[in-house]
């Protein structure tokens, strides 16, 4: 196994092709749950968990069941069913063991079923032709990139909540401008992954 490829995948998914800030996937929980650090960290941990498990389950299903039987056209349905099942599992565990986090995440937890970032990771793994290990690394890197974006953005939001901006920037405009600036900051890493081992 070439570890250079795995390192390139992680750096690419965390910084260069961040699902939230560069691909604009998973923006709903990014904007909705980032009001406070606890919710941002909890949602990010749940997303990382579901991304890795979804990849661990969907990759072999696709490789050994769908592709072998010429059922590739069922990928979307099967992947969504797997993700929905995993999200239900996470929801049950959080409700049982961490009720405060369950309440904090609120409606955004069941919405993870349709979180396009989670679904996109499973599809990118197939489209890029990643091996099982590469797919798991891609899922972890994508989840960690989501985590990084959420934590940084929630810190920015906590700071901006305690400021007094001009009336035109209060509320949603300031949030969207902050997200855009953060996205530009991540855009500065473009080209890093490709030139890392040259």
Concise structural overview:
The chain has 198 residues and is mainly alpha-helical. The chain has helices at 3-16, 27-32, 37-66, 75-97, 99-105, 116-127, 132-161, 172-187.
What does this structure look like?
The protein is globular. The protein has helices at residues 3-16, 27-32, 37-66, 75-97, 99-105, 116-127, 132-161, 172-187. The protein has eight helices and no strands. The two termini are 19 Å apart. The chain is mainly α and 198 residues long. α3 (37-66) runs antiparallel to α7, α4 crosses α5 (99-105) and α4 crosses α6.
Search tags:
single chain; 198 residues; mainly alpha; 8 helices
Topology:
Layout: H1 3-16, H2 27-32, H3 37-66, H4 75-97, H5 99-105, H6 116-127, H7 132-161, H8 172-187
Summarize model confidence as the mean pLDDT.
Answer: 87
The number of strands is 0
- Considering DSSP H and I runs of 4 or more, what fraction of the residues is helical? 55-70%
Question: So what's the oligomer here?
Answer: single chain
Q: How does the helix and strand content classify structurally?
A: mainly alpha
Instruction: Estimate the strand proportion.
Output: under 5%
Ranges where pLDDT stays below 50 over 5 or more residues in a row are: none
SSE sequence, one letter per element = HHHHHHHH
Counted by DSSP, the helix tally is 8
Backbone shape: globular
Radius of gyration: 18 Å
Head-to-tail CA distance between termini:
19 Å
Give the biggest sheet. none
